[in-house]
Design goal:
transferase, 277 residues, alpha+beta, Antibiotic_NAT-like, 20% strand, seven-stranded mixed β-sheet, two-stranded antiparallel sheet, N-acetyltransferase activity
């Protein structure tokens, strides 16, 4: 075994990540203790590195979640924001004289093929698991597995990527819950649903993506809301202070984790955005 295999790609030894291996069994037990139930519709945001030294890495996390959700639905954001108009790229940008070539040659979004970007190892792993369905939005897709996977993913219009016709709203319709596995409100996608529902006078921005239509690659343009997650931590903290009964906290592996009721969180966030933005 090489040094990189023993320490991980960042050079950190396993014993520096956690005092013992984190296993499918130990994660499943911790998730049950946190309050995850077999019939939950559960939207998960996960940071693999925060959990400790996980034996089996990302697949072990997915396995643990599926082991519990025997009658429920597992959902994760599987966004691919790089399948988009290069004019909006910032991290990193590309030269302006590349724009036309990028638009003309970008491979189309395909649910079974297109990788996630910035979603973490667990979501990237989950999207290709057997039985997982993925929504059709080229930039803001969600993947789902379980009882209501088709209901969550079957509708996802271009111009309502995180609003009332999106998978986020379908989780809301199912009185779903949100699980932070080593993550925080800073990446709480459900708060975008509140942005769409709040009376904020948000502008609509021109977007573009490569998609498959009638079996052919096509570059499409559409408009969607100009959204902003900068104040999500403050909004999330306000929700938790107002509704402590809707939040359960504990540890999975060595990560601080939280289980939250999505519906009251979105409802509170609508009012909070209208009062504070």
């Amino acid at each position: 075994m090489s040094d990189s295999d023993e320490t991980g790609s960042d050079g950190v030894l396993p014993v520096e990540r956690s005092s013992e291996p984190i296993t499918v069994e130990s994660m499943a037990a911790a998730l049950r203790a946190l309050g995850v139930e077999s019939d939950d519709c559960l939207l998960v945001h996960a940071s693999l590195s925060s959990l400790g030294w996980v034996n089996g890495a990302a697949p072990a996390v997915v396995d643990a979640l599926q082991r519990i959700l025997t009658d429920g639905t597992l959902v994760m954001p599987t966004h691919s924001p790089d399948v988009s108009n290069p004019e909006w790229w910032e991290n990193p940008p590309v030269p302006e004289d590349w724009y036309a070539t990028v638009r003309e040659t970008m491979p189309a979004y395909r649910p079974a093929v297109t990788p996630t970007r910035g979603m973490g190892a667990v979501a990237e792993c989950f999207r290709s698991y057997p039985g997982v369905e993925r929504s059709a939005h080229p930039m803001h897709s969600f993947a789902a597995w379980g009882t209501d996977s088709a209901f969550v993913t079957e509708r996802h219009p271009l111009d309502d990527s995180l609003g009332d016709d999106s998978p986020l709203a379908r989780v809301y319709d199912r009185d779903g819950r949100v699980l932070f596995l080593g993550t925080t409100h800073a990446t709480n996608t459900s708060l975008h649903l509140a942005e769409y529902r709040a009376d904020l006078g948000l502008e609509r921005e021109s977007k573009g993506s490569a998609v498959v239509r009638d079996g052919e690659r096509e570059w499409v343009t559409f408009e969607d809301l100009a959204i902003d997650d900068e104040d999500f931590p403050e909004c999330g903290a306000a929700f938790e202070a107002a509704h402590p009964e809707a939040v359960s906290r504990g540890e999975v592996g060595v990560a601080e984790c939280a289980l939250l009721d999505q519906r009251p969180m979105v409802d509170v966030a609508v009012e909070w955005f209208e009062a504070n933005r």
